[in-house]
Each structure stands twice: as C-alpha cells, then as structure tokens.
Amino acid sequence: MTKLTANFTLAEFTASDTADELGIENTPTRDELANIITVAERLQGLRDFLNSSLKTPVWLQITSGFRCEALNTAVGGSPSSDHRSGLAADFKAWRADGRAISPDTLMRTVEALGSFDQAIRYDGQTRIHVGYGPKMRGQMLRKSRAGYELYEPGR
C-alpha cells in the first residue's frame, strides 16, 4: 500500500468498481502519479482544516479519483476531465460520530482554502468534486438535472 499523505493511499485514488468489472488496469504514469500526490496533499490540508475547525476527527472518502483513458471512457467522462490526468477527486466526508458533513460545508471549505480549478456540488448527493487542473479558475458550480450553474450556498 503506497501511502501518499498521513491519511491517503494511492489505492484510494485508483480504486474503481467499473475498472474491476471491465478488467481495466487503472495505473497512473509517473506524471499522473505526481498529480495524484498533489491532490492528496490538498485534500489532506482540507481534512486537517476541517478537523481543526469542527473540533472533531473528520474522514474523507474518495469516491472517484484518477481515471486512465479506458476507465474515463467507460464511465462517460469528458476527455478533458481533470480526473483523467490525476488532478481531480470526488469525495464525501463525515465526523467521528458518523454524521455526514454537508456538501455546502465542503464547498465553502474548498473555496476558503483557495487555489483550485473547479468545485462542483451535485444535487441530492453528499459528495462533491474538486479539480486542481492547470486553469485554476476558482469556479464554484452546482450540477443538477438541468445542467451546470454557478453555485449558491443553500440552493
């Protein structure tokens, strides 16, 4: 098990039920691994910030990390997705008592820590997406059935 930070492993960023089902080897190149490490370090900082600000242990679960080209195609990802280069992760978080941390709290935390490309809150889900791609636009978005729009907390 390759440990990337105090709380994240490479396996967390490359795990995929779809890859397992289809026999896809989701192995990053050296450059992609360097990107994954960058994302792991950023998420470690986010986790540490939440631990401190909420005054309770916080866990982050990566629900989608790196996607090789074959896996990205299999899940219908955009060819330009930051997941493809290892520069994005979808994740959810919860407190030590098992209560989920709201996606709005996660979005506000990503925004407060800054230096990101896109953060996306998905309607009806507890996970969010954060990308650290090269554009670093600081975009805050909400994804609903209607598509993407600018994120507004509480909506």
Index terms:
155 residues; alpha+beta; Muramoyl-pentapeptide Carboxypeptidase, domain 2; 6-stranded mixed β-sheet; 5 helices; 6 strands
Number of strands: 6
CATH class: Alpha Beta
Query: Which CATH architecture?
Result: 2-Layer Sandwich
Number of helices: 5
Q: What proportion of the residues form beta strands (DSSP E)?
A: 15-25%
Radius of gyration equals 15 Å
Describe the structure.
- The structure is a single chain.
- This protein has 155 residues and is an alpha+beta fold.
- It has one domain: Muramoyl-pentapeptide Carboxypeptidase, domain 2.
- The protein contains five helices and six strands; from the N terminus they run αααβαβαββββ.
- A six-stranded mixed β-sheet has the order 1-2-4-3-5-6.
- The termini are far apart.
- The relative contact order is 0.15.
- The model has no long low-confidence stretch (mean pLDDT 96).
